[in-house]
Specification:
single chain; about 220 residues; mainly alpha; three-stranded antiparallel sheet; 10 helices; 3 strands
Length: about 220
């Protein structure tokens, strides 16, 4: 899998590692949608303690990837296509604002990071690293949000955009190509570089609507 260096604000916590492992298992559908799984089984599979697991599960619940069931464990969120359409309606508007803010305030380092993510995603797509493409799609939009420096937009992106990753993974597993989405990402970058706030917002909004249509057709 192609990896992009991510700058961390502090030391990596055990719960961060557990969260990353669980996210990979959920996005790749290793943990099937709708499945109930207990904490003891998760600790055994991940080789982790209860405290980091619970911290990771709390964050995944905030991202709507799991639902905690008291005294039973967790249920992996369902893959519901009508709900995905509603999700994209929300994400398209939030991330259009993120792109507008990025066009206003992204630094040179921000742009370099965003471009490196698209390059990594292109390589992942060429090698049919489907999980890599899905993860890098999230990293791209999160990096755009971070470059806008609005913590509420960043938080909304983190909470909502990861939900799209499983649909991207499933659609690509069924044969959907990633090049159209990557070309749209490049157009977003061009608009951000040009400091064209309206174009960055409009292109981003249209990108999500087109991606929605492609994924719905594929599924």
């Amino acid at each position: 899998m192609v990896k992009v260096p991510i700058q961390l604000s502090g030391p990596i916590r055990a719960s961060d590692v557990v969260e990353k492992q669980l996210t990979k298992m959920i996005v790749s559908l290793e943990l099937s949608p709708g499945t109930m799984i207990g904490e003891a089984e998760l600790m055994e599979r991940l080789g982790c303690g209860r405290t980091p697991l619970r911290e990771a599960l709390q964050r995944l619940a905030q991202e709507y990837l799991i639902v905690s069931i008291p005294r039973k464990g967790v249920r992996i969120a369902e893959l519901d296509l009508p709900d995905y359409v509603k999700l994209i309606e929300a994400v398209s508007h939030i991330e259009a604002v993120a792109a507008r803010l990025a066009a206003r305030g992204a630094s040179g380092d921000d742009l370099e990071r965003i471009e490196s993510i698209v390059e990594a995603a292109t390589q992942a797509d060429l090698s049919r690293d489907i999980l890599g493409v899905a993860n890098l799609d999230y990293e791209f939009h999160y990096a755009v949000a971070e470059s806008g420096a609005n913590r509420y937009i960043i938080d909304a992106t983190a909470r909502l955009h990861r939900l799209t990753s499983r649909f991207i993974y499933l659609a690509m597993k069924g044969g959907l190509a990633g090049w159209e989405s990557l070309e749209e990402h490049r157009r977003i970058i061009v608009a951000i570089k040009a400091r064209d706030e309206d174009a960055a917002a409009n292109i981003t909004h249209e990108h999500f609507l087109r991606a929605r249509d492609r994924i719905v057709s594929a599924l």
